[in-house]
Structures are given as C-alpha cells and as structure tokens.
Amino acid sequence: xxxxxxxxxxxxxxxxxxxxxxxxxxxxxxxxxxxxxxxxxxxxxxxxxxxxxxxxxxxxxxxxxxxxxxxxxxxxxxxxxxxxxxxxxxxxxxxxxxxxxxxxxxxxxxxxxxxxxxxxxxxxxxxxxxxxxxxxxxxxxxxxxxxxxxxxxxxxx
Length: 157
Prior knowledge:
Blueprint: E1 2-4, E2 11-13, H1 26-29, H2 33-50, H3 57-66, H4 72-87, H5 94-101, H6 103-112, H7 129-134, H8 141-156
Antiparallel strand pairs: 1-2
Helix pairs in contact: 2-4, 3-4, 5-6
C-alpha cells in the first residue's frame, strides 16, 4: 500500500514513512528544513492558483505571509499569484481578465499552469515591447510573424 508524501508530492511505499508526524517520507526528512518548507510552500501556492476555483481572502492573507519567506523562489511565486488574485481571483474568467489587464502576467501564469489556453487572436497586444522598439512602424508585421512562428513550434512539438 502506498502513501502520499506532502513534501515531494509522490506516492511512496508504506515503508518509506516513519508513522509519526506529518506524512513526509524518509528522503524528504533528510533534506534541510528550509528546503522542505519551501517545497511545501510552493505546492501550496500552486494549489491556490491551479486547483481552487477562487483565491479567497484567507489565501491572500497566506500569500502575504509567504512574501517574507527566506527562499526567493517562494516569495516571487507568491508575489505573482498575489497579483493574479488582485486582478482576477475567480478562475472562471481569469484568462480573459488577465489578457485584458496584464498580458505579461498572463504569460507568466501560463508557464506555471499548463491548463491555461491563451487566445492569440489579439497577437499585437502580446508582442514584446522590445520588438516594438527594434522595428519601424512599417515593419511591424515581422515581429508578429516571428511570434506566430514561435507559437506554432510550441504548440506542435
């Protein structure tokens, strides 16, 4: 019979657990405490973003606490999800609201949550700002073509 380790998020055999305390396997117990806490905090933040329908007020309070976490990865991820919660706390129209208000943040969220499908019909708003500064206004179709080429390559393979 297998059990679930809350630190490494894997199913492990029953022998890999001590039976006392939280369900953390022996491999994860050997890790430094800060690394274990960071792993569990990242999983918690990912749950706020991807598994819940609503980022509640309690979740927002917890995200604000995690902004002061010693690990920079956890603090940065908490900051990103907190920005998402301020713009679109409910999942139903999250993509549409993020695309309208902050397309850069939407791209960051899409890298984390693979279930998000970005609508590229309004590709001109998603073109990087650096592309706009590199080309003349008459040449603006070239960066958009490059953008679609990259998009096609990612989608197909």
